[in-house]
Design a protein that fits this description.
Layout (H helix, E strand, L loop, with lengths): L12 E2 L1 E6 L6 E8 L5 E5 L2 E2 L6 E10 L8 E6 L5 E2 L32 E4 L2 E4 L6 E3 L3 E2 L3 E3 L4 E4 L4 E2 L5 E3 L2 E4 L1
Parallel strand pairs: 12-15, 13-16, 14-17
Antiparallel strand pairs: 1-8, 2-7, 3-6, 4-5, 4-7, 9-10, 9-11
Length: 177
Amino acid sequence: MSYIGNPLTQGFDYIDKQTFTGDGVTTSFTMRDPVGKEEIIEVFVAGVRQEPVVAYTTNGYNLNFTGAPGLGDTIYVVNNNSPIRLNEPPLDSIATANLKDGAVTQAKIDASVSLGGSVFKGNNGTVGNSLGDIFRVNTTTLSTNTSINTTENASAAGPITIAASTVLTVNGHLSII
């Protein structure tokens, strides 16, 4: 499709549109965003623009036709009041490989997320989940089932206790210091 203007760097911004297919029976369709007034949306059935309030009404997320669109009729809805979506990727479409190296830092991770439970103390004060200080402080009780794989080396400062019903499987190497 041609356009006039400077070359695009990020793609088109767009107003929200949705399509549905009539089955000759269904009169109510659920939209992505709520609509406060019928006049805010443009509705087309089989390519013919429909009259707000006469051919359809809205109630929150519901688009309600006064008569069911015909079997196979394409229903095209443009919501002029919805948020503009700027190159919004589909849900669950971002993979780790798509993230720039170093883009996610500890400061951007929710505090409730555990990054291994390490705490380091020493010259830099107490630093949670950070590398490069003198003392690593760890808890003394293992309460989550854990496996040390054959290709892994692990170490822990002891003594340690393994909680009841907790399994520690060591196929690699484990040193308790």
